[in-house]
Amino acid sequence: MKEILKSCVDKVDDWIELRYHHRRRNSIMARGGRIDTAESIVKAGVGVRTMVDGCYGFSSTDELTETGIMQAVHSAIVNARNLSKLKKRKVTEFKKIPLATEDYFAPGYESLMDMTLQDKLDAVVKMERAGKASSKYITRATCRYSELLEDKIIVTSDGACARQRLAQPEFLLGLIAEKSGVQTTYRNGAGISGDWESLFQHPSIDNVVEKTSGLAVDLLSAGYVEGGKQTVILSPSIAGLLSHEAVGHTVEADFVQSGSVAKDKIGERVGSELVTLIDSGDAPYGENPAAMLTFDDEGVPCREVTIIDHGILKSYLHNRESAALFGVEPTGNARAWEYGVEPLIRMRNTCLAPGARSLDEIIAETKSGVLLEGSGSGQADATGEFMFGVGHAVEIKDGRLGRLFREVTISGIAFDVLKSVDAVSSEFMWDMGTGYCGKGQAAKVDGGGPYIRCRTTLGGK
Predict the structure, then answer these.
(1) Radius of gyration of the chain (CA)
(2) Do 233 and 214 belong together in one domain?
(3) Number of neighbouring beta carbons within 10 Å of residue 193
(4) Which residues contact 197 (CB under 8 A, 6 or more apart)?
(5) CA nearest neighbour of 175 among 204, 125, 137
(6) Is 230 found in the same domain as 216?
(7) Which CATH number goes with the domain that contains 191?
C-alpha cells in the first residue's frame, strides 16, 4: 500500500497528503453471567488532502487501487479550487520541518490479533460473574472489553512517508449495589497502548472486583458533602480530566483562533509555580498511556509540548496549518478518527507533571478539606469554566481521612483552580484511558497526573 500511495503522490503537481487507515474495533460486553454483545467492525480506506491557492481540498475512498485513489485525488483538487474562492485567510507554504520517514509497530498489535476470541470472551464473563458474586448487595454487574487495532500509512509530497500500527485495549467493570431502596453505581477500568498483560497490570484495575464492589456497597450508607468552595485534593483521574477538558481544549489552536480564554495569554501566568502541563504522543511520566503515537495524521512527529511551565503559558497545540498562521512549528496534534474525515487539532496524552511530596504528607498537613477520587462525566467550555462529576469523596479533618461522601460535583474556572494549587504529589498515574474525546469526531486520548491540592467549588445533594 505504501508503494501505491507513493506512486499516486508522484503523479500530482500540487501539494498532496495521502493517509491510508485500516481500523479494526473489537468489543465484548458481559451481563447476567453471559456475553451480552460481541462485535467486530473493520473500516479501511484512504483520505486525500490537496492544497490549491492556499486552501485544502479533501476527499476519500475505500477503493484501494491506484485508479480509485487518483479519482479521489482529482475530487480533492476540485474541492480545493472551489473553496479557495471563498476562504479569506490562506496558508501558501508550510514551515519546513523533518517529517516522519520511519515505520513504527507498537507493542500489542500482533499479540492481540493472535489472541483467540474465546480467551477474551472467557476473561470478560469470568470478571462479570466475580463482580456479581462479590456481595449480596450487588444486584447487577457489567464488564466490557474493547480494543482498537490500527494500521496507518502517511505519504505527503513534501517528505512524509511512514507507517505505524497501534494497539489500544481497554477494560471496564461496573457494579450496581442496592439496599433498602438506595442504589449506587461504581465503575473501575483502564485503557492503554499495549498488550493484554500490560492492560491488566494497570493500577486502576488491580484487585478491581474488590475495590469496585467495596465502594459500591460503602456508598450506600455514605452522606453528602457540604456544598461551597473548599480545599480539595484531586486524584490523578480528576487532575487529568481538568487538564484535558478545562485547559487542554482552550489551548488547541483552532479554539484559540475562535477566541478561547487562552487567546493572547502566551507568557502570562495561568497557574501556580507548582503547575506544569504537558501534552505528548509518548509517556513523559508513567507507563502505557492510551494515545501513544510516533507521528500524527499529517506525518508530523509527535513531539512533547510543554503547555504550561511552572505556571506560565508557553505553547498552544498546532497542526501544520495553524502553525503556519501562528509562525511556529507544528506540534504533531493533527488527528483523524477515520479515513473519511479530515484531521483536526486534538490532544494526545495530557498530564500535570508530578511533584516531590507524597500524598500521605499532603493529607497530613491538610487541616480541613476533601479528597476526591474517580472522575465522572462533565462539561467545560472555551472560557475554562467546568463542572465534573466525581466518583466519591473522603473527608479530611486535622490531617486524617474520615467520612465517605457520594454524588459529588466540582466546578470552577480552570485557570483560577490552577493558580490555587499549593501541593503536588510524587505519585503519578494515567487514568483516562477508557474515554474518548469528542470534538466533531472521536479521538482516543489519555490524561492523568499526580494528586494536587487546590481550591474549587463542591456540590452535594
Answers:
(1) 23
(2) no
(3) 30
(4) none
(5) 137
(6) no
(7) 3.30.2290.10
- Among the three residues 202, 221, 240, which one is the final residue of a domain in this structure? 221
The amino acid at residue 409 is T
Give, for all 461 residues of the chain, the pLDDT tens digit.
999 999 999 999 999 999 999 999 999 999 999 999 999 999 999 999 999 988 999 999 999 999 999 999 999 999 999 988 887 778 878 989 999 999 999 999 999 999 999 999 999 999 999 999 999 999 999 999 999 999 999 999 999 999 999 999 999 999 999 999 999 999 999 999 999 999 999 999 999 999 999 999 999 999 999 999 999 999 999 999 999 999 999 999 999 999 999 999 999 999 999 999 999 999 999 999 999 999 999 999 999 999 999 999 999 999 999 999 999 999 999 999 999 999 999 999 999 999 999 999 999 999 999 999 987 777 898 999 999 999 999 999 999 999 999 999 999 999 999 999 999 999 999 999 998 998 989 999 999 999 999 999 999 87
Q: Determine the length of the chain.
A: 461
Q: Which of 196, 221, 246 is the last residue of a domain?
A: 221
